[in-house]
Amino acid sequence: MKPDFDVTIVGYGPVGSMLAILLGKKGYNVGVFERWPSQYPLPRAIVYDDEIARMIRLICGQEVSEKISENLTGAYEWRNASGDTLLSIKHPDNGPTGLPILNFFNQPDLELVLNEVCQKIPSVSLYRGYEAVDFIEKDDSVELVVVNKNGEQQSFSSSYLVGCDGANGMVRKKMKVEYTDLGFAYTWLVVDIIPHEQKKMEPSFWQLCDPKRPTTIVPGGPGRRRWEFMMTPGETVEEFNNEKTAWKLLKPWGYTKENCQLVRHAVYTFRGAWAENWRKGRVMIAGDAAHLTPPFIGQGMCSGLRDAWNLAWKLDLVLRNISHDRILDSYTVERNPNVQGYIHMAVELGKMICVTDPVEAANRDKVFLSGNVEPFPPLPHVTSGVLYNYSEQPDCLTGRLSVQGIVKHDGKVGLLDDLVGSGWAIISANGDPESAFNKEQIKFLEDIGSHFIEVTTDISNKNGYYDMEGTYQEYFKQNQMEAIIIRPDFYVFGAAASKSELTIMVDELKKQMHYQSAVSFLS
Ligand SMILES: Cc1cc2nc3c(=O)[nH]c(=O)nc-3n(C[C@H](O)[C@H](O)[C@H](O)COP(=O)(O)OP(=O)(O)OC[C@H]3O[C@@H](n4cnc5c(N)ncnc54)[C@H](O)[C@@H]3O)c2cc1C
C-alpha cells in the first residue's frame, strides 16, 4: 500500500520548514507535524552567514531575504572590563557565495517567511497542534504516531521520517543513538529590545569579557538590539529570569522603559552536544535534534539549515529511485564532523568568554594583549562523503563551498543562482561542459538535475554566461582547472584540470551516488 506521505517531518522550526520546502518544491508529499498550534514567537538566532543567505535567497527570493536581514560589516570584538580590545575577528564583507557574511535577523521573521513559502506548496500538508509521540519502522515505510489537538491518537505512514524536533526531541530519543555532550553549560539571560530611536552603536557587535558579568551586545535584526547577560555564581534562574532583572541589566547601557520596548527576556543554557548517528533505517534527525552549538559564533541554526539542504538532495535521489538508499548514510558522514567543527570552535570561544574568576580573567587578558594567540581557525568544510579526491590541503577545492559570481545570460544579469536556480552545476571555463560527456553520462547528469554552464569572458558568446566581474575566471585560473562540479548544497564535488578528468569525475559521482539507472519520476 502507498504510504500517506513520501516524507513526514516532526517539528516546524526553521529546519523542519526548510526541509519541507525543499522536498515540497520537488513535488513530494510531505506531512509536517508541529506540536504548537501557532508559531513560536520568541527570537533566538540573530545572525546567519553567506551560505545561509544563499539558501534563503533561493527559497524566498532576493527581495524578501534582503527585507528580513540587516547586513553589517566590521569586526566582532572582544573587550575586557577596562575597554582594551582582546580580540578582533574580521570578516570580508562578502563570502564566496557573493553574499554578505554577516546577516542580522530576527528568527520569528525568518520562520514567518519560510511559513509563507511552505503554505504555497500544495504537496506539503502542515498539521499544527499535533504532537508526535512515537514511530514504528516497518520494511517499506515508517508509521508516525501523533496526538492531535483534541487529544486523539492518529497514525500517518511515510517512506521516510525526519525528526526536526529540537534539542529535546522525541525522534532522537526513540532512535536510541549515542549522544555526546561536551559538558559545557552556562546559563545566560537573553534580552531583546526595540529602541524607540535608532542609534549607531560602536562597535555594533561585541563581547564584554568582564568577569563580573560576561555580556554579548549585538544587533537583533532590522530595528532591534540584543543583550545576552551571563548568570554568575550565586545567582539563581528564578531571580535572573524576570523583567525586573532585564531592565536592571539594560540600564547601564542606556536603555530604559522610556526609550525602548522590551520584546522578551528568556533564560537559556548554552551547550555543546551532538548525536553520533543521524540516520537509522528510514528515520533521520536534523537541526537541534541532532546537535547543539553555543551561540557565540551564531552557527546553531545555520548548521541545521545545512542539514536540511544536504538531506533534501539525497532524499530526492532515493525517492526517485536514482540512488540506492545507502546514499543516506553519507548524511551523517558529511554533516556530523562539519557540525562538530563549529561546536568545538564555539565551545573554545565560550570557555574564554564565560570566565567569572577575576584572576583567571586577568591571565586570559594578559595572553590576548600580548598578541600571542592562535589565529581564528578556518571554518569547517565537508571532509568525506560524496566527494572527488578530497584532500586536507588548503588549495584543494573539493568539499569547500563553491564561489558564486555575477553573470549575464540571455539579457539577464544576476548571481548565477538567480539565473539558473538550484541543483547540480557543471561549470566550465573552457567551452560547453556538456560536450565532454557521452550519452550515458548526459542521461545520468540530466537524471540528477544538472545545469551545464559555460562561463565566458567573451560577451558575444550567446550560449555562455558572461562572467561580469571575472569571479569564475579568477577562480579557475588561480586553481589551474577547467571545470568544476557543484552539489545542490553548494559544496564542490570535485574540480577537473581537463575535460577528460571531468568525465572521470562524473563516472566517480555515479558510483558514489549508488546510481540505479531505472529512474521512476514523480507522477
Ligand atoms: C539565545 C540563542 C541565540 C541563538 N543565536 C543563533 C544565531 O545567531 N545563529 C544561529 O545560526 N543559531 C542561533 N541559535 C540557535 C538556533 O536558534 C537553533 O539552532 C534553531 O532554532 C534550531 O532550529 P530547529 O528547527 O532545529 O529546532 P527548533 O527551532 O527548536 O524547532 C523544533 C520544533 O519542533 C517542535 N517539536 C518538538 N517536539 C515535537 C513533537 N514531539 N511533536 C511535534 N513537534 C515537536 C517544537 O515545538 C519546535 O517548533 C541561537 C539559540 C539561542 C537559544
Bound molecules: flavin-adenine dinucleotide
Q: What fraction of residues sit in β-strands?
A: 25-35%
- Which structural category do the helix and sheet elements fall into? alpha+beta
The overall strand count is 26
Helix content: 25-40%
Number of helices, counting only DSSP H or I runs of 4 residues or more: 14
- Can you give the mean pLDDT? 95
Low-confidence stretches: none
Strand count, sense and barrel status of the largest sheet are: 8 strands, mixed
**Cα-atom Rg, whole angstroms?**
24 Å
What sort of overall outline do the alpha carbons produce when their principal axes are compared? globular
Head-to-tail CA distance between termini: 17 Å
What features would you describe in this structure?
The protein has 523 residues and is an alpha+beta fold. The protein is 29% helix and 28% strand. The protein has 14 helices and 26 strands. It has helices at residues 14-25, 50-60, 62-68, 107-119, 170-175, 237-240, 243-250, 300-319, 329-353, 358-369, 416-420, 439-447, 471-478, 499-512; strands at 5-10, 30-34, 47-48, 69-71, 75-80, 85-90, 103-105, 124-128, 131-137, 142-147, 153-163, 179-195, 206-209, 215-219, 225-230, 260-275, 279-280, 283-285, 291-292, 406-409, 412-415, 424-428, 450-456, 465-467, 483-486, 492-496. The strands form four sheets. Strands 1, 2, 8, 9, 10, 11, 17 and 18 form an eight-stranded mixed beta sheet that branches. An eight-stranded mixed beta sheet has the order 6-5-13-14-15-12-16-19, sandwiched between helices. Strands 21-20-24-23-22-25-26 form a seven-stranded mixed beta sheet. The chain is globular and about 70 Å long. Bound molecules: flavin-adenine dinucleotide (FAD). Flavin-adenine dinucleotide (FAD) is lined by residues 10-16, 33-36, 40, 44-48, 107, 131-132, 164-166, 169-170, 190, 268, 287-288, 295, 298-302, 304.
